[in-house]
Design goal:
The protein is an alpha/beta fold. It has eleven helices and ten strands. The chain has a six-stranded parallel beta sheet with strand order 6-5-7-8-9-10, sandwiched between helices. The chain has a four-stranded parallel beta sheet with strand order 1-2-3-4, with helices on one face. Mean pLDDT is 82; it is low at 106-111 and 246-255.
């Protein structure tokens, strides 16, 4: 069942029906989308039999707001992703495909939160909006975030302090993700940093062809996330790598 975006009063009632996907408008009278989602994620006044379900049910924000503002608000309140209006049939179809027919399942939020708390994540991406969105999500899970807009800055950041995971955009000016990953794995650019051969590097790219995946693997990347990256994928993948410190740099998986 799918919950329409204008049913905010029903969402906050104790006799809430089980819905498997929610489209939530940001701007509504009485109770806006942000407040409604916060209430759902807190599971206050929700039947105990539905509480676990509503901690992890996919919630898609719908809005005419600017993407940067919409993504910021979505990350804070607990939405999974945002669809900007006008929303077409193709957008809705892709959403259904992602949440109902994909092999990648949504991971329980409480488990992921426990895995991520206190972890240091380095975001390497020349797109400021992308870094801001991922940073907002990960800070919600109590991660410590470092940011770099290209590979040169990322290497300098790694030399200055330790990180648990690197999120690496493939296409960047100055020094791209492939070049940066190779340099990190070789370790010649570091005097202090000693975890260069084992730190998980997660590739971020809009180009998901096999050649690109192979290039990422040969460069020493461990995992491959397709852009746009959504909250559940991001959180599930990072939590999976941080709980396994003995990661092998030659393994590369694709989401």
């Amino acid at each position: 069942e799918i919950l329409p975006s204008d049913w905010s009063s029903d969402v906050c009632s104790s006799d809430l029906t089980r819905f498997d996907l929610i489209f939530m408008d940001f701007e509504m009278p009485d109770l806006n989308g942000d407040q409604t989602v916060r209430h759902l994620r807190s599971v206050q006044d929700i039947d105990p039999g539905l509480a676990a379900h509503y901690l992890q049910v996919p919630i898609i924000g719908t809005t005419a707001l600017a993407p940067t503002e919409a993504l910021r608000r979505a990350a804070i309140c607990g939405m999974n992703e945002v669809l900007c209006k006008p929303i077409g049939r193709l957008d809705v179809g892709k959403t259904f495909e992602r949440y109902f027919f994909s092999e990648t399942r949504v991971s329980p939020l409480r488990h992921d939160e426990a895995q991520l708390a206190g972890k240091k994540i380095l975001l390497v991406d020349d797109n400021n909006t992308s870094r801001h969105f991922m940073s907002m999500i990960l800070k919600h899970y109590h991660c410590q975030i470092g940011q770099a807009e290209n590979g040169q800055i990322a290497i300098k950041q790694l030399e200055e302090q330790d990180y648990d995971v690197i999120l690496m955009d493939m296409e960047m000016p100055v020094m791209n993700g492939i070049e940066t990953s190779k340099a990190i794995r070789e370790g010649k650019c570091f005097k202090r940093f000693r975890n260069f051969s084992a730190i998980p590097i997660i590739a971020l790219t809009g180009n998901t062809d096999q050649q690109n995946i192979e290039s990422a693997k040969k460069a020493g990347m461990n995992h491959f996330l397709s852009k746009p990256v959504f909250r559940d994928e991001l959180v599930a993948v990072i939590s999976g790598w941080v709980k396994n410190p003995s990661v092998q740099a030659t393994e590369c998986r694709h989401v």
